Amino acid sequence: MAPPPDTSKTTKLERYNSYIRRVNSTKLLAASTNLLFRATLLTAVVLILLFTLHYPPLLAGHHPSAASAHSHRSLLSSYSSYGGATWEREVRRSATPRRRGGLSVLVTGAAGFVGTHCSLALKKRGDGVLGLDNFNSYYDPSLKRSRQKLLSHHGILVIDADINDSKLLIKLFDVVPFSHVLHLAAQAGVRYAMRNPQSYVASNVAGLVSLFEVAAKHADPQPAIVWASSSSVYGLNTAVPFSELHRTDRPASLYAATKKAGEAIAHTYNHIYGLSITGLRFFTVYGPWGRPDMAYFFFTKAILSGNAITLFKTRDGVDVQRDFTYIDDVVQGCLGALDTAGKSTGTGGKKRGPAQLRVYNLGNTSPVPVGKMVAILEELLAKKAKKNVVTMPRNGDVPYTHANVTLAQKDFKYRPTTDLATGLRRFVKWYVEYYGVAAPHAQGKGKRGKGSVGEKGKDANTGRVASA
Ligand SMILES: *[C@@H]1O[C@H](CO)[C@@H](O)[C@H](O)[C@H]1NC(C)=O
Ligand SMILES: *[C@@H]1O[C@H](CO)[C@@H](O)[C@H](O)[C@H]1NC(C)=O
């Protein structure tokens, strides 16, 4: 009898093969699990990296260099293209009030001078604040980054974006039901308007419309809006002190014209959509963390470095005068306007009833000749200015400003209390600390042996407002 064919070999082989297949599929499974693990790890690392870059204050204690500010911006903007759960959580955290009945305020131009101070003051009393700023280079962006750092230190997120970005604005209002908008983003400066007119139209007209559009048609509820107009709308008005009832139809600069246009546009959005809108006409605001394009600021720099400054006389040979208004007083005015703002009345682009429309002067009610301002600086800096006095060119500056603030006083108890000498002393104190310049005599008294001012400059940078 022939032995049965030995199948054991084939069965063995088959068993071996199936074993190999099993092993392979297990390996495959293990390999894919490994791959998944690695991908997850990589994603986590990328997320952590983005998160960390989003918060430079945790990393850097120095002035951001132009380069780092730039890379920061490009990363941030890719991240802020409405980036997911983490982003929304951070936005909500910043914007949520911590006191009962607190406001939730979107502050545009939050890394600007007035924006920074108002954001801090709101946060301090328990309101929620979310900042927006495009960090443009009209003046030194590193100063804006330092202000952003200061705000971040106080738990305020400032998103790096432009107010012309309607998609972002819509997203923000979807994520947070802001009760108020404090709209301070703008192209400032009277003389720069002759060099770059389009930037005024883009910011002060198109940007304003972009914000009003979203607030009127998408925000639910519609927020109440308080925004920065300007004392420059009084233009060639000669009746003093300037009252809200005076003519504002003769602007002397394109800057003033775009702010005046803004007041007209505000009327339209109030009329058609029921937005509650308050315009604030600021009078030469100054103080710590101020704007380097303003005279008191660049005069300080020039006096300290021994460069000449140019002072203007009017065509009648009189000193130019300004109603210099200290930042803390202006902040009180802004908060007063927010607190007394009525609710908007529309929804989804439909007006449901009449809404509040207001305009107020926020000045100091006490004009000072610019020459006197320079004398105060000379004393504080213990150094004489080299002065060029010339007749004022026809570039949009007006010879004299003086605010009548009766209306703001009546409606929200606005009462400026800081005179120019006091305010400039606080400014100079901040300036020497921030820029780390040698302490001038008048400031140095009683501070000897406490190390260089430069060291204290770091403090100012990591988070204290010199004046607050
Ligand atoms: C919006 O502003 C940015 C600058 O922040 C500019 O680059 C961009 O062109 C502007 N877009 C529009 C539509 O004006
Ligand atoms: C200030 O303005 C109010 C109206 O808001 C007016 O009644 C008052 O007379 C003005 N004061 C001066 C000094 O012009």
Automatic annotation (TrEMBL):
It catalyses: UDP-alpha-D-glucuronate = UDP-alpha-D-galacturonate. The keyword Magnesium does not apply. Residues 105-340 form the NAD-dependent epimerase/dehydratase domain. The chain crosses the membrane at residues 35-55. It comes from the Eukaryota. It is found in: Golgi apparatus, Golgi stack membrane. Pfam families: Epimerase. GO terms for molecular function: UDP-glucuronate 4-epimerase activity. It is a multi-pass membrane protein. GO terms for cellular component: Golgi cisterna membrane. Its EC number is 5.1.3.6. Keywords: Isomerase, Membrane, NAD, Transmembrane, Transmembrane helix. Residues 442-468 are annotated as: Disordered. Belongs to the NAD(P)-dependent epimerase/dehydratase family. This is UDP-glucuronate 4-epimerase. It comes from Phoenix dactylifera. The gene is LOC103710614.
